[in-house]
Amino acid sequence: MARPGGRSARVQQAVHAAVRELDTEVGRSALTIPLIAARAGVTPSTIYRRWGDIQELLSDVAVEHLRPDTGPEDLGDLTSDMRAWAEQFVEEMASEVGRAYIRDALLGDPESNNASQCSAYAADAIDVILGRAGARGETAPDVETVLDAVVAPIMYRILFRPSPLDAAYARRLVDGCLK
Amino acid sequence: MARPGGRSARVQQAVHAAVRELDTEVGRSALTIPLIAARAGVTPSTIYRRWGDIQELLSDVAVEHLRPDTGPEDLGDLTSDMRAWAEQFVEEMASEVGRAYIRDALLGDPESNNASQCSAYAADAIDVILGRAGARGETAPDVETVLDAVVAPIMYRILFRPSPLDAAYARRLVDGCLK
User: Fold this and answer.
1) Which residues of A68-105 are buried (b: 16+ CB within 10 A; e: fewer)?
2) Testing the interface with B: which of A160, A169, A178 to mutate, by most B Cβ within 10 A?
3) How confident is the model over B102-151, as pLDDT tens digits?
4) A83 vs A140: CA distance, rounded Å
5) Is B156 within 8 Å of A160 when comparing Cβ atoms?
6) B152-160 and A152-160 helices cross at what angle (nearest 10)?
7) Interface A:B, Cβ pairs < 8 A
8) What domains are defined for chain B?
9) Which residue of A54, B12, B51, B64 could cross-link B57, Cys pair, CB 3.0 to 4.6 Å?
């Protein structure tokens, strides 16, 4: 099971896996570092040394979950690509699990490194879509504009404003940005 | 010093004041509920009963801080009013103190009531500005559109994306929304 990166990467992998398993088995509120350490086969002090506290560990696990598994789909034109990406983004982020991961990512992250990483995942996907559009000769806005017009409203509403988020809302944001 | 609302309101006022004073004197990381209780002249159990834990208390104090002191200025036209409001909003929220309050408000708030309250403060101010514009006969977007186009990008960048936020950025968002 060794991965490139040696012991440090193996410890991370085992601890993350233990958090995911125990989260399902006993629930978030019952998670403790001794419990996680026992499941991962490491000492509690290994976890404390590396992560400081349980919130920082949960933040790291959350960012891993929020990392997209695949790149954005190529549907042949900018509007279709951006709509499909935004619809999927809303579906994942606004789900109960997505909301919990976003909160975890922000909470245990006083330096905002994990929050920046979440934003970088979105920016990278959008960059791929806009790069493809450019290669097709389509006119496209820049990444920061799409982050402001599409990603920011979705994340703002998830965190601050109780509102139903659906595919139609995602499409409306995309169409407003590309018009 | 009694306020309408009786004992409950007096306790809240004393505890909030104690948090603000101690935050300045000893710093955030040294705050404890027994310390706050002693300063406020209440028992620790009064605080635990009402707020549950220190993060919930800090979240309530943060929302109090984020409440605007005054309504938005009337400068005679929609663009000037929205620009002035957005510039001030960026200045307050993106300051070090503002960022800390936003984090506090989100962190100790599993039910998102305090986060909703923050969003309601912004929505109320925007509503006043748009209402005035309507009374002048100006064409104006609706509140939700301004939240998406102006407030959301500012809050998203504060939380997720290290980027310098300044008055020029606020004006650009407003002009993009009103064009």
Assistant:
1) eeeebeeeeebbebbbbbbbbbbeebbeeebeebbbbb
2) A160
3) 988 988 877 788 999 999 999 999 999 999 999 999 999 999 999 999 99
4) 14
5) no
6) 80
7) 70
8) 6-52 (1.10.10.60), 67-178 (1.10.357.10)
9) B51
